[in-house]
Write a structure and sequence with these properties.
Elements lengths: L1 H15 L3 H8 L7 H4 L10 H10 L8 H8 L4 E3 L2 E11 L2 E12 L5 E7 L1
Length: 121
């Protein structure tokens, strides 16, 4: 009986974990960028941003925009700090404590054009 309990306790952590391929396949579903979907927020999450991020960044579209055009396209950033716009893409949490955050960061030049675009994880 003790062996069964021991094996059960040992196997629980393994059974509780998801296969990393399962997590990646869900996150890797890409869709074309849509302005309206980008701005949708459900609670603290943005359900479409991670799927649209590659299309948005790889197209080079952001680098050609001005501050006003970025705000029109992407909406108000989650944070603004010294000519840096921060757009939260995805966040893993335990309850309300963030464990991992993926953020789109856009740095503007003094003339309000884009200097660079990065993804911070």
């Amino acid at each position: 009986m003790q062996k069964i309990i021991f094996l059960l306790v040992l196997s629980l952590p393994c059974l509780a974990c998801k296969n990393s391929d399962e997590n990646n396949s869900e996150a890797q579903t890409e869709i074309t960028f849509e302005k309206e979907k980008w701005k949708i927020q459900e609670g603290e999450d943005y359900p479409y941003r991670n799927s649209m991020l590659n299309d948005l960044v790889s197209s080079g579209r952001i680098k050609t925009l001005t501050k006003v055009e970025i705000l029109d396209l992407l909406g108000k950033p989650n944070r603004i700090d010294n000519n840096h716009f921060f757009y939260m893409i995805a966040q893993e949490r335990i309850q309300s404590w963030p464990l991992h955050t993926k953020t789109l960061v856009i740095k503007l030049k003094d003339d309000e054009s884009v200097e660079w675009v990065k993804i911070h994880e």
